[in-house]
Amino acid sequence: MSPDIFIEDFERTENSDYLHGVIGRSLIVATRFDAMCTALSKAIEIKTGAVYLLASDEDFDQFVTQVETKYRTLNSSINSFELPDQISDILHQARKARNEVAHSLTKGLEGCIDTKISNDSLIDEVSGLLAKIVDGDIISSVLISNFNDEPILNNVSLEGYKDKIINWVVEP
Fold first, then answer.
1. Which residues of the chain have pLDDT under 70?
2. Distance between CA 86 and CA 93 in Å, rounded?
3. Are 101 and 30 in contact (CB under 8 A)?
4. 157 Cβ contact list (under 8 Å, min separation 6)
5. What is the spatial distance between Cα 2 and Cα 89, in angstroms, rounded to a whole number?
6. Helix 14-52 vs helix 155-170: angle between axes, to the nearest 10 degrees?
7. How many other β-carbons are positioned within 10 Å of the β-carbon of residue 5?
8. Is there a contact between 20 and 114 (Cβ–Cβ < 8 Å)?
9. Residues 137 and 32 sit within 8 Å (Cβ to Cβ)
10. Contact, 113 vs 16, CB < 8 A?
11. Where exactly are the structural domains of the chain?
């Protein structure tokens, strides 16, 4: 068998399990950001659509079902918020970092990754990507809180939020 076609290295070490844990937790954070943006985009569409669909409960239920089943990309979700460029740019940087985590971070890291990448370089890369994702997560969380008329964390709590998430992902 050719190693280019099949994974043949199934060795697990304490270190490779730690690195795989870092990758998995980073994917959890990236997926949360994506899901939060999608949920807000759908909620906004339902709320704005409800104004125009006063016909019947059945029509409204059909509209909600349509919104819920409609596929939307993270990019289209972010664009639907219609935010100032500066805030939108932060969300799009978070989107790009999320895509990196979800689609590119683990390329070439099949099998035992101990000899394929250094811990420091992976941790640095993940930490940098997460910093951008968490910035987007904070914005999406604030937008959802505003949408729901719920209180927003104060600046002191928000400042520590990014460090808590990054530490949760990368600390052994």
1. 1-4, 49-57, 59-60, 62-71, 156
2. 11
3. yes
4. none
5. 44
6. 140
7. 7
8. no
9. yes
10. yes
11. 14-170
H or E element in which residue 8 lies: none
Q: Which two tokens stand for residue 3?
A: 């190693």
**Helix, strand, or coil (residue 142):** helix
Closest CA to 29 of 85, 108, 105, 84: 105
**What's at 119, amino acid-wise?**
N
Max Cα-Cα span within the chain: 64
What's phi and psi for 77, nearest 5 deg?
-60, -50
Judged by phi (left if over 0) then psi (alpha if -120 to 50, else beta), residue 148 lies in: alpha
Whole-prediction pTM value? Answer: 0.86
CA distance 58 to 75: 31
